[in-house]
Amino acid sequence: MAWHKKSKVNLTKLRILRTLIQTIMFILMNLTFFGIGATWLVLPVDMPKMLTSSSEGAFYLLERMLTAGLLPLIPLASFFIIGSIFGRLFCAWGCPFGLFQDLIGFITSWKSKYEPTQETNNNLRQIGDFITGVSILASTFIGINVALGEIENIKIAFGIFSEQPWAVLSPSVFLFTAIPLLFYWGGIENLFNWDKFILIDIVFWIRLFIIIFAIILVFYIPRAWCRWFCPVGIITGLLGKHSILGVGRNISKCTHCGLCEDVCPMGVRILSHPPEKVRSEHCINCLDCVGVCPEDAMELRFL
Amino acid sequence: MRSNAKAFIALSLGFIFLTLAISANQFELIKDLIVEITKSATAGLPIP
To answer: Tens of pLDDT along A225-278?
Structure first.
């Protein structure tokens, strides 16, 4: 079906609004830059502790609390309350790494994107399940040993993974924490001095490889990192499948044109879901489908 | 079970966790954790 002018205008307006809100959320999470200290804004987003951040994303805090031998009640409350009401809404409207992926998508919008099948989407999501499971299990194991007084032994055994296992490999941590620290603490010149360059730790190159891999992936597939690898998305996706807020389809208006599926950045096969609400762990409530629908058949629904 | 029922169970669990967190004074406890950049985050960085 050909694109209606109305669809294009609505979608553009919606995407501008979303980028604006994502930017405001990014500023709200970095209030230290404006002299405001730590806040309790623990949101289910892929946001690590940054130089200027006044809070931390729920999954990083969950890992940090577990490895410190604390019950992660605050991040769990954040996941359950926000996830059961809004689903993965914050992935679309508040996640800094989501914003980064959207910007790459915008810069490379001249290039046609590849859309994997639903089966591929679901299969690759198991990598994220594995990452989430291993991170939580490792953090719990470390926390139990810390609570038993084996702090030194466990730090030796787990090394760099002993405080936040996933943070070592997360591209979001490398982008928002590690790279700014390289400039702030003055390590960037080591990359341009051959004698120091050859001494750089292999962990640095592995982390650099992961972020480059993530960028290349997003270059071809919109929000690829959110779809398959992000632990925050995995947890909120489980809750989001049954969330109170969601996108529904008015069947009396729907003409099955498929525009909603074409613009969905997460590759959700909207028309194959029940019209009452899209029950997918991939849906991030970005509302692109609502904006693009020429018949106004897609709508945001409560309950 | 209907999806709405699952959502309300999850929401109730969330509020139970929040109540427990407040009663265990966890918001004060995590103050130091939140402001700290961990060794995991800076792993492998060529910092002098």
So the answer is: 999 999 999 999 999 989 999 999 999 999 999 999 999 999 999 999 999 989
pLDDT in tens, A58-115: 999 999 999 999 999 999 999 999 999 999 999 999 999 999 999 999 998 888 888 8
CB contact under 8 A, A178 and B45: yes
What residues of B are in contact with residue A241 (Cβ under 8 Å)? 3
Which segments of A88-240 does DSSP mark as H helices, in order? 89-93, 96-107, 118-147, 151-158, 165-169, 171-173, 179-184, 194-197, 202-220, 224-228, 231-240
Report yes or no: A277 at the B interface, CB cutoff 8 Å: yes
**Along chain B (48 residues), what's the average pLDDT of each consecutive run of 10 residues?**
84 96 88 78 82
- Give the integer Cα–Cα distance in Å for A172 and A211: 8
Residues 9-38 of B with CB under 8 A from A: 10-11, 13-15, 17-18, 20-21, 24, 26-27, 29-31, 33-38
Residue A232 and residue A59 in contact, taking contact as beta carbons nearer than 8 Å: yes
What is the ipTM metric for this complex? 0.92
The percent of residues in chain A predicted with pLDDT above 90, rounded, is 64
- Residue bearing tokens 């924490």: A177
Q: How far is A251 from chain B (nearest CA, A)?
A: 20
Which residue in chain B has the smallest CA separation from A206? B44
Identify the helix (H) or strand (E) that includes residue A36.
none
The 3-state DSSP class for residue A1 equals: coil
On whether any CB of chain A is under 8 Å from the CB of B41, the answer is yes
Quote the CA–CA distance of B30 and A64 in Å, as a whole number: 9
Residue A256: count other Cβ atoms within 10 Å of its Cβ: 12
| A53 CA to centre of own chain | 17
Q: Is A284 on the interface with B (CB under 8 A)?
A: no
User: Distances in Å between the alpha carbon of A251 and those of A135, A276, A285?
Assistant: 42, 9, 19
